[in-house]
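As a warm-up, study this chain.
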Amino acid sequence: MGAPSSSISRALASKLRRGGAASAAAAPSLRCQHSVLRSPPPPSRFFASSSAVADSASQARGKENGSRWSNWLLFVPGAMAFGLGTWQIFRRRDKINMLEYRQRRLDMEPMKLKDVSPSNKDLQSLEFRRVFGKGVFDDKRSIFVGPRSRSISGVTENGYYLITPLMQISDDPESVKFPVLVNRGWVPRSWRDKFLGTLDDAGKPTDASETSVQKSEEKSWWKLWSKKPKNVEEHVATVASVEVLGVIRGSEKPSIFVPANDPASSQWFYVDTAAIAHTSKLPADTLYIEDINEMVNPSNPYPVPKDVNTLIRSSVMPQDHLNYTLTCRVGLEKMKARCS
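Now compare it with the structure written out below.
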């Protein structure tokens, strides 16, 4: 029994030694496999992945810069629209105050021209005050300002403003004490040409035939006597007094598109009170009024006085400023919609 048991134990020991050697031989192969799995990737794959990351980052920065510039491009017009809209609101308020001021001045009692002196009051404080007075028109010093258009029954016609000095009547206590420039109203071009032609004819000397006729008439005392009433009547018509109802105004402020006045050639494109007074040989501080008398003779419709309602109007009314404000607001809403 002792011999077989010892043989069995030796067989088991030999098997165990062979298993240990096999496991020791397999261990290096496993370590090699783990080293292969833990080795870094090839260089080509590393550079490819890093370039892709850089491209995506640059694309993201480009999109961010593009969105930033687009926001600025939308912000600048929006800020301009907001500023213009706010400015229009203030302009509307100023225009309302200006028109209300004019209306209050026009509602005051008219002043007498004989009591108004350019030297004792500031003319700006008198603007838009109604005045009335009596005097004589000096037609020879008249000037025409224009052209100015006027719409009659839907038809527009070009014409001019007639400005004539109103002079003092020496023996009338109700007469003006100082010369006054009066804008008598609008006249058509044909009326102006006829008026200037009449003044030219009045200043021209008579020709030889007219002189001979006058000399022959002077030989007869009764013909000379018969001429006297006609001459007296013409003289009275020339110096006939007129009553004027008007509004004190100042010089016009022309736009950049209006040409400069040329007094030497009698071309007046806008009202410059001081220049007109100088040309008419009147004091520089001469008062200037616009005739608003509505009592027009139907048989002699020209000049057409100004309508008093036009004095409380403006080329841009408060409602126009409100429309501009609403337009700016609509533009802002559109920009907000684009941004969102």
